Amino acid sequence: KTSGPNHILPTKGAAKYTGGLSVGKFIKVVTYQRSSREANRDVAQVTARISRLEGMEAHARTGDARLAKYFPDEEFNLHP
User: pTM for this structure?
Assistant: First the structure.
């Protein structure tokens, strides 16, 4: 393939399993998640408890922070 819209091919045998370069090779894909306030409650509680069981206190604190932000008037048992 030496002409056409896509004439830049991979080298070192990579052309066996992938095509040429395209704009898609230069685009960064950004993903995100949207969740409801109630879903945040469930996820944050589970995150905090499991993270503490696994010894990952910093991860547990992200769950604590989320609960404090969205549910400041509630108490949660987050320690196993």
Answer: 0.58
